[in-house]
Specification:
Length: about 200
């Protein structure tokens, strides 16, 4: 990081940054991505718009960083000794209320990504790729332990299956995903696809 960038970042304390991110997420839930403006963020957080642009560059980067800040580090420090245990532990990182809030938020952001290349780029670089890297570590440990064959064709689609469980719960059942639903989904769908008994 350059000295200039370091100096810029030092103007906002971690506490202030967390407060600002929380306000951005509140606004995002209230008005959606398309209607969210830097002016509105500045007013809500009593910041200058110039400071926001200097610190984050634009709306897409600010929104994605706010989402990332609110999410636990998936996979960080999780190693239960089995893939089933690891996947269940990942689900337990967030309670049902948080899962519901984040699910609704992500549906709105996913819709907005269709119309915003900036948001797509920021989302992929800061959220999708790190999540995939963490997920791949969990999977590689399962392969190394001999739980999953390295050539299992379902491995390529594991993240798709996990995201599908989150996304389709509201779409098909008109209910938010819950820990119980996602745990059952892992046991009934994900693990069998990988050739792992759900009771392992």
């Amino acid at each position: 990081m350059t000295e200039v960038a370091t100096a810029r970042r030092s103007r906002i304390t971690p506490e202030r940054e967390a407060e600002l991110y929380a306000a951005v997420l509140d606004l995002l839930r209230e008005v959606g991505y398309d209607a969210l403006t830097m002016d509105a963020v500045a007013a809500r957080t009593r910041s200058s718009k110039a400071t926001l642009y200097r610190q984050w560059g634009g709306k897409a980067d600010l929104v994605v960083k706010a989402i990332k800040h609110s999410k636990p580090d998936h996979g960080e420090g999780i190693d239960t000794g089995s893939l089933r245990g690891d996947l269940h532990a990942l689900i337990r990182l967030e309670d049902d209320c948080t899962i519901e809030q984040n699910s609704a938020l992500m549906r709105g952001v996913a819709m907005a990504m269709h119309n915003s290349a900036d948001l797509r780029r920021a989302f992929r670089a800061q959220l999708v790729e790190p999540e995939m890297a963490g997920f791949h570590q969990v999977i590689q440990r399962a392969v190394d332990r001999g739980e999953v064959r390295a050539d299992c064709p379902a491995l390529e689609f594991l993240l798709h299956m996990m995201i599908g469980g989150f996304a389709t719960r509201a779409l098909l059942d008109d209910q938010p995903p819950t820990q119980a639903f996602l745990t059952s989904y892992i046991d009934a769908v994900v693990l069998p696809a990988l050739g792992i008994p759900a009771t392992s």
